[in-house]
Amino acid sequence: MKVGELIELVDETIANLKIAIIANQNRVFESPHTSYEFAQRVLELQEDLDDLLKAREMLAGLDPESEAEEHFSKEELEEFLKLLELLRKAEPHAY
What we know:
single chain, 3 helices
């Protein structure tokens, strides 16, 4: 996998998290009974977003045409890809 492809996956996941944060922020005001849960979810999503933005910044410093395996071990890359997939598929904004 090329670094550029990995950056595209990270960008897609970042976009999904931003949508989820906005959706959860809007739901905070729906009911006083559920506002805490949505506010807590926003904080968790923001932490994930911050981590992804740091990873994106680090990846941007690499040559997008180089192979990601040149920069990361196979295990690190597999674990990162699994994390991205989980964050994209979780759809935390679609409850």
